[in-house]
Amino acid sequence: MKIKVKKEKDDKLILEVDEERHTIPSLICWALLKDNDVEEASYTLDHPIVGEPEIRIKGKNPRKSLEKARKRIGKELDPLKLEETHG
């Protein structure tokens, strides 16, 4: 999966997520919306087979908010680590 910056301004960031559909963009938007510095976070997918999702972020510092969202997702997924079982 690759994430490309399509457009960037001071308070807006538009990203394209290659080789994804709904799962990852939805998760990223969920995490972004937990940040008080984010005014808007959404994604669109023009065509489910040939299109690539675009994530739109509007807020105080979209790049910083995206990094905080990445860390938040990691923390949320920590409980999914499986312990080794013997026997």
Describe the structure.
The protein is α+β, with helices and mostly antiparallel strands. It is built from two helices and four strands, in the order E-E-H-E-E-H. The longest helix is centred in the last third of the chain and has 16 residues, at 62-77.
Summarize the structure.
This protein is an alpha+beta fold. The protein is built from 2 helices and 4 strands.
The total number of structural domains is 1
According to CATH, the homologous superfamily is RNA polymerase, RBP11-like subunit
Q: What's the helix-strand series?
A: EEHEEH
**Radius of gyration over C-alpha positions, nearest whole angstrom:** 15 Å
- Mean of residue pLDDT? 92
Biggest β-sheet, characterized? Answer: 4 strands, antiparallel
Count of β-strands: 4
N-C termini distance:
37 Å
Low-confidence stretches: none
The CATH first-level class comes to Alpha Beta
- Global outline: flat
CATH fold-type name:
Gyrase A, domain 2
In percent terms, what proportion of residues is strand?
25-35%
Any guess at the CATH architecture?
2-Layer Sandwich
Pairing-aware structural class of the strands and helices? alpha+beta
Helix content: 25-40%
* Strand adjacency order, main sheet: 1-2-4-3
Helix count, DSSP H or I runs of 4 or more residues: 2
Please outline the helices and strands.
Blueprint lengths: L2 E6 L3 E6 L5 H10 L5 E7 L9 E6 L2 H16 L10
Antiparallel strand pairs: 1-2, 2-4, 3-4
Helix pairs in contact: 1-2
Comma- or semicolon-separated keywords:
87 residues, alpha+beta, Gyrase A, domain 2, 4-stranded antiparallel β-sheet, 30% helix
